[in-house]
Structure formats: C-alpha cells, structure tokens
Specification:
100 residues, alpha+beta, 2 domains, 4-stranded antiparallel β-sheet, 4 strands
Length: 100
C-alpha cells in the first residue's frame, strides 16, 4: 500500500510541475506580446550591406530615420516625417547634406 501511495504522489507532483510550467510559459508569452505594442520605436526595414554594416529604417513618434550602423558607429543618414512618402523627402534631405 505504501508503494502505491508513493507512486501516486510522484505522478501528482509531476503533473503539478508540468501544469506550473505550462502556466509560466503561457504567461511569459502573453507578456512578451503585449510589451511590443507600447514601444515607441518601430523598425520598418533593415538591409545588411556587408558582414558588419547595415541600413535600418526606424519610425519614432511620427518621424522616420534612415540609420547606418556598424560595430563601431551609428549614424543618422536621413530624417523625414512618417506621413510623407519617403522617397522625395529622403532625396531632398540627402541633397541638402551634399551641399554642406
């Protein structure tokens, strides 16, 4: 009788641990999904230029930024309002930079 009781306790303990793990994973997944919605930064696109450099299009509070990133440096290449189409605004911004 004691052997049967220890087996039942073992199965019950295993079931409780599995249930606690499932609840923890479910809670963690819900928390991760909801945290992405409140972030003010949104990455709209990314292009890797080589192994260590990339261009990233980022939107922050109704403004878009074209950012160049390397392991040693991060630079803003262009900036324009998010409601514009982007192509003419970026061209004008880059043309203004070339004149400097």
């Amino acid at each position: 009788m004691a052997e049967e009781l220890s087996w039942v306790r073992w199965v019950t303990a295993l079931f409780v641990v599995a249930l606690a793990m499932a609840f923890s994973f479910w809670t963690l997944r819900r928390m991760q999904g909801s945290s992405r919605n409140w972030l003010p930064i949104r990455v709209n696109g990314r292009v890797r230029l080589n192994r260590s450099a990339e261009l990233v299009l980022v939107e922050v509070e109704n403004e878009r930024f074209l950012i160049g990133a390397t392991p040693a440096n991060i630079s803003t290449i262009a900036k324009w309002p998010a409601d514009s189409t982007g192509s003419t605004a970026a061209s004008n911004d880059l043309a203004g930079r070339n004149g400097e």
